[in-house]
Design a protein that fits this description.
With about 325 residues, the protein is of the alpha/beta class. The chain folds into two domains: about 50 residues; about 250 residues, 2-enoyl-CoA Hydratase, Chain A, domain 1, CATH 3.90.226. It is built from 14 helices and eight strands. Strands 1, 2, 3, 4, 5, 6, 7 and 8 form an eight-stranded mixed beta sheet that branches. Strand 2 and strand 3 form a beta hairpin. Helix 1 runs antiparallel to helix 2, helix 3 crosses helix 11 and helix 6 packs parallel to helix 8.
């Protein structure tokens, strides 16, 4: 698969300018049959140094921009690259089939498993069909139906999280989206198979938690996992969505902060500049992390696994109080 030509983000403009200079220099060299090997080498080095400087010092808001890039790979894109097969299953057997949350059986590195994932669209038509990756209650009920099926056949579960949040519309509330997510959270603690959750891009609030209870929670390097979007937080705290960059920093929602806080177990590296720059490399990193953790989990006694899963989430949010003087 060829590397995808992508639209640069605002903070990538210095890199784009240097690459443009390199292209012009090489074209000029060919046109006039000139040997400018040293100049080209120096410009290549300058580009590498600029990339290193920019990508090693990304702000939380810049990471949010990366995960929202329109060419970033989604769950189905990754499945095409890491799974030898994927058989999608549909419907919650209660209301209908939610296309924002996909699920089915797959084989990853000879390991048969169930894969669930939130799926966004590439264009307006597909985004409307996928509801921009925001699942309705029937999406979470479909996920639970499939997870119980995996539990019955003793298949591990892989959850690929990428959603701004569960759909907050009237129809969603009428069909009890909060109850559907709550039931999923409760039931996932009791499933007697290994569960791995991976935050691919946006990990928004309860929409992410609805398939996010797992023995190992992994996150891609530039992804975020948060109780609210930066814009939502800014609107509440500052009454101004333009404060989103400040909110992103305050929320401690990026992979380095989440790892330090113990909210995720592993950070999966992405290609320089983000997964949208090289789908194959990103997919290989994802596959390697899933297989590595899954092989360890499959060797763990199931009772111990359930105890560890429960203790893992009970330990979140620990705080200390000092006695008043």
């Amino acid at each position: 698969m060829e590397k995808i030509k992508v639209q640069p983000l605002e903070f990538e403009k210095p890199i784009v300018e240097l690459e443009k200079m390199l292209d012009e220099l090489e074209a000029h060299s060919k046109e006039h049959d000139m040997d400018i090997t040293d100049e080209v080498a120096q410009l290549h080095q300058r580009i590498l140094e600029t990339k290193q400087e920019i990508y090693s010092n990304l702000t939380p808001w810049q990471r949010v921009q990366i995960v929202r890039h329109p060419r970033r790979p989604f769950a189905l894109d990754y499945l095409k690259l890491i799974a030898t097969d994927f058989t999608e299953l549909s419907g919650d057997r209660l209301f209908g089939n939610d296309r924002a949350l996909i699920g089915g059986f797959a084989t990853i590195n000879d390991i048969k498993c169930l894969v669930l994932g939130q799926q966004k669209g590439r264009d307006t038509k597909e985004n409307l069909m996928r509801n921009f990756g925001c699942a309705h209650p029937e999406g979470y009920r479909k996920a639970l139906r499939l997870m119980r099926l995996a539990d019955k056949f003793k298949l591990p579960i892989i959850c690929l999280i990428d959603t701004p949040g569960a759909y907050p519309g009237v129809a969603s509330e009428q069909r009890h989206v909060a109850e559907a997510i709550a039931v999923n959270i409760r039931e996932m603690f009791q499933l007697q198979v290994p569960i791995i959750a991976v935050v691919l891009g946006e990990g928004g609030s309860g929409g992410a938690l609805g398939i996010g209870i797992a023995d190992k929670v992994l996150i891609l390097e530039n992804a975020y996992y948060s109780v609210i979007s930066p814009e939502g937080c800014a609107a509440i705290l500052w009454k101004d969505a333009k404060m989103a960059p400040q909110a992103a920093a305050a929320l401690k929602m990026t992979s380095p902060d989440l790892k330090e806080l113990g909210l995720v177990d592993d950070v999966i590296p992405e290609p320089p500049g983000g997964a949208h720059h090289d789908w194959e490399q990103a997919a290989e990193s994802l596959k390697s992390a899933i297989v590595r953790h899954l092989e360890k989990l499959q060797k763990t006694d199931i009772e111990k696994l359930l105890d560890q899963r429960y203790d893992k989430f009970r330990a979140f949010g620990v705080f200390e109080e000092e006695a008043a003087v």
